[in-house]
Amino acid sequence: MKKIIILIFSIAWLCPAQSDYMSIIKKDGTNILYPVSTVRLIKLSNSILSVNDQKFFSQIITSFQLFQNYPNPFNPSTTIEYQIPKSGLVDISIFNIQGRLIKRLDNSIHQSGIQKIVWNGQDDFDKQVASGVYFCNVKFSGKAITNKLLLIK
């Protein structure tokens, strides 16, 4: 174990620009360190993500992204997940195939990181919408991303 620690410190000493590391503890208990500057995607499968330092974690998220909702197709509700690299105003709206606003899910300030919101398939008047194709539009920092949602009853 001491040899690994010495090696890690010597790497950090040789590459001061890459001195921030992300520690991953695998199911077998082994610990792996990755330089934060090399991390592009974190994909988890049957894992629990524990983040003790929000400042450290927010350094990993460098872009605004809207992920595909799940489940899709859905009935009666679906989860919309997105990430923002810094705190700011996020506007999330659902539109029908004709481009009419069906539901404004949120229009408020959010902290940086990965966020989730659930749409229950209802419009702004709390009435269940019909089966069909809908679009989720998320706006952040002057940019907008849209995903297609499919409601099947």
Overall outline: elongated
The Rg value, from CA coordinates, equals: 20 Å
**Roughly how much helix do the residues carry, as a percent range?**
10-25%
- This entry's quaternary arrangement is single chain
Overall number of structural domains: 2
Q: Whole-Å distance between the termini? A: 57 Å
Q: How many distinct beta strands?
A: 9
Strand content of the residues, in percent?
35-45%
Mean pLDDT: 80
- Main β-sheet, spatial strand arrangement: 6-5-8-9
Output the structural class: mainly beta
Low-confidence stretches: 1-18
Main pleated sheet: 4 strands, antiparallel
Query: From the coordinates shown, what is the CATH architecture of the largest domain?
Result: Sandwich
| DSSP summary: helix tally | 2
The first-level CATH class name of the largest domain: Mainly Beta
Succession of helices and strands: HEEHEEEEEEE
- CATH fold label of the largest domain: Immunoglobulin-like
Considering the chains and any ligands shown, give keywords for the structure.
153 residues, mainly beta, disordered N terminus, 2 domains, elongated, Immunoglobulin-like
If you had to describe this structure to a student in words, what would you say it looks like?
The chain is mainly beta. It folds into 2 domains: 58 residues, no CATH class; 87 residues, Immunoglobulin-like, CATH 2.60.40. It is built from 2 helices and 9 strands, in the order αββαβββββββ. The strands form 3 sheets. A 4-stranded antiparallel beta sheet has the order 6-5-8-9, with no helix packed on it. Strands 3-4-7 form a 3-stranded antiparallel beta sheet. A two-stranded antiparallel ribbon has the order 1-2. The N terminus is likely disordered.
